[in-house]
Structures are given as structure tokens and as C-alpha cells.
Amino acid sequence: MRNLFYIVFAFLLVSFSNEKKDAETVISVPLAGNAFSSEHIDGSNTITDNGIENWTNPKEFFTLYFKISKPGTFQFTVEESVEVFGKSEVEFSINNESKKVTFTTSKKVVSIGTWTIKKEGYVALKIKGISKTGDRFPSINRLEISSKDFDGKISYVPNNEGNFYHWGRRGPSVHLNYQVPENVNAEWYYNEITVPKNEDKIGSYFMANGFGEGYFGIQVNSATERRILFSVWSPFETDDPKSIPDSQKIKMLKKGENVHAGEFGSEGSGGQSYLKYSWKAGTTYKFLLRGFPESNNSTTYTAYFYAPELNKWLLIASFNRPQTHTYLKRFHSFLENFVPEQGDLSRKVLFNNQWVCDEKGNWTEVNSARFTTDNTGAKGYRMDFAGGLENDSFYLKDGGFFDEFTTPKKIYTRPLNNKKPEINFNALP
């Protein structure tokens, strides 16, 4: 009888131990999709699809981000994927609590340390090089994060399926889908946007007048170049503009002074135009788009940009899209970052005074918009996205790993401005 008691007790003890082990949170975080260099260099070769590599500069450091849904105590381990070049000392820190780790052997599991994180939200793990005997610091592919007391959710980019190392590091895109009455033949879309000061990060595209077949907005292309961009997709679906048949190519009808026009690819293909223009953060700009069906089963789209610095409307370009017969549909705006190395920086934009004008010249103010995010946000890989109302304007914000996010698919309504655009269509260039 006593032996039976011990057998049952041992069985329960093992079961309890397995239950505790099964309850332990363990994740493997690839640095390729979740870490950022302090250098923010477009095309940098220190963060690759293999994680941190080619790390030679002691002044360069890296930050790994993940989001926790509740506080907890976490253990960090460098997985066997580490590659070592001589002897190196590397410092890992969270909330100014640092641990120094010595690397001497490649392909070896290395324990970094344990941190207690007292607040839910994004966690930033900084990785700095202290010293090295070889020509570079270790190449680190993945970190294992485990916890015995944490039973919440951890948000991060888990793998590269669907090229998510690229999309995840770019960060989530966010959109406003304006609620236009369905019975309006919208020939004109009008919008005003303001990029707040210090929110004009390199790689940002602030798209003002989106429509079913293209988009129109402003970009920050580099430290010295900014653009007003207007593009129309071809009805022929491809990422290679050279494969588009002549019968389905976007035709350029006219363009403004100093406007570059050509083709684009990689995310659909079609006709693209842009004007290099040094627009400024803190200034409000106006966007006007026309779209109307022609008699030959095509639609003509024309984009105008109001430059307050010049006190006039500028023609960007006019394109004709074949095999299309429509007025403007799906009025929307969006905010995105197109440079992965800039995905740890936040950006924000305000939109106000949206209107549509029908084919008879009747203006209608549009003051409701539905907020959405892209697949990066929808999957929960990145949760640093927000949108809605701010000071009677719509706003969009993304990137930078901020904690507060907006639940997608909500509709927001701003107060009516009753400020109908005063535009002489006949005087437009």
C-alpha cells in the first residue's frame, strides 16, 4: 500500500512539473525583423535576413523591440546561431539596467541575464559593443526570451514568411477611408494635410488623395529631397511595368513644369509622376484630384497641388487609364514608411477639410472616416499604430514603438467645417 502511495505521489509530482514547464513562456525572436541600428542608414548591411552581421563600428549599437501585455520577469539567451570573431564583450541593457557578456566561442548558447519588467508595453533591449580582439563583434541571429511567471501576449515579427522581415521593420501602415455618399458621381476630391513639426522622418509617405486606381501625396525621400507624388495603377496586374501590354499602359496626357514622369513597379505597376518640392512640416497643403470617365472606355485622372509658398495651384500630371470607366471611388488617405531602417522612428500627419465635388459642380463635405491598418498591424507583429480625431482633424500615426494603439475598423466623425473650397476650375493649369 505504501509503495502504491509513493507511485501515485511521484506521478502527481511529475505531472505538476510538466504542467509548470508547459506553462513557461518561451519565444525565439529573430533580430532580422525586430532590431534596428543606431545608424539608420538606408541599405545598411549590419542588419540582414540573418540578424546582426558585419558589425565592426564600436559606435554603432542596436535595439531589439518587443511588446508585452503585462509585467513579468524574463530570461534572455543568445541562441546557438551566434558567430564569434575572436573575443568580444557586449553590453545588453533594458531600462538602464545592463549586463555585460563575453563571447569567445561560436555556435554556443550564451545566457545574457534576467530582467524584471514592471510595466506593460514595448520593451527596448539595447545591444552595445564594449571591446573586441577580432575585426568585428559577434554576429547574432536570434534571442530566446523565456519567463516562468508571464502568461500574457508578446508582440514581435516571428519569421520571414511573406517577406515580413522587410514589412515588419518598415512598420505598420495606417489608413483613413472617407465615408462618401454612394450616390455621388465624384469628379473631384479635395483634402488638406499638415505634417506636424519633427514628424517628417525620412522614408515617410503622407498620402492625401487616394482613389481606387492610384494615390497622390507627399514624401520625404532623403535629408535633402522631398517630393509630391502622383501615381495611377495599370489595369494589367503585375509588378513589372515592362510586361504591361500597350493596350493597358497608363498614358501621360500632360505634366507640370519640372515634373518627372515615368513608370513604377514592385507594388503593382503603372504611371508615376513626381515634383521635387521642399514642402515644410508645420505648413498646411491642399490637394485636388480630378477623375472622370471618357467615351472610349477610359478614365482621365489629374492631380493639382496648392503651394502656399507660391500662392498658386501647380499641375502635377494628368494620366489616362484604359479599360476603366468611372468617376472617383474609394476616397482615402494613408501614412506609411518605405525605408525599413527608419521603422523605429514615429511619424504623424493631420488631415482636415475633406470635400468631394460631383460632375455638376455640387460640393459635399466629407467628415467621417474609417480607421484601418495593414497586415503588419492586423497580425499583431507591430502594434505601434494609431488614428482617429485630434483637435477636430483626423490624424494618423505609426512607427517608433509607442505603447498606445487604436483599435482598427472604427469610424470617426469630425465637426463640419463648412469651408467649401474656393476653386476656379477653369483657371487651373
Protein topology:
Blueprint: H1 2-23, E1 25-30, H2 31-34, E2 35-37, E3 47-48, E4 51-52, E5 61-68, E6 72-78, E7 88-94, E8 97-103, E9 110-117, E10 121-132, E11 142-147, E12 154-155, H3 164-170, E13 174-178, E14 186-194, E15 204-210, E16 214-220, E17 226-233, E18 251-255, E19 259-264, E20 270-276, E21 284-293, E22 298-307, E23 312-322, E24 332-337, E25 347-358, E26 363-366, E27 368-373, H4 375-378, E28 385-390, E29 393-398, E30 411-413
Describe, in plain words, how this protein is organized in 3D.
This protein is mainly beta and 429 residues long. The chain has two domains: 23-156, Jelly Rolls (Sandwich); 169-427, no CATH class. Helix content is 9%, strand content 46%. It is built from four helices and 30 strands. The protein has helices spanning 2-23, 31-34, 164-170, 375-378, and strands at 25-30, 35-37, 47-48, 51-52, 61-68, 72-78, 88-94, 97-103, 110-117, 121-132, 142-147, 154-155, 174-178, 186-194, 204-210, 214-220, 226-233, 251-255, 259-264, 270-276, 284-293, 298-307, 312-322, 332-337, 347-358, 363-366, 368-373, 385-390, 393-398, 411-413. Strands 19-20-17-16-15-24-13-27-30 form a nine-stranded antiparallel sheet. Strands 14, 18, 21, 22, 23, 25, 26, 28 and 29 form a nine-stranded antiparallel sheet that branches. Strands 2, 5, 7, 8, 10 and 12 form a six-stranded antiparallel sheet that branches. The chain is elongated. Residues 1-21 have low confidence and may be disordered.
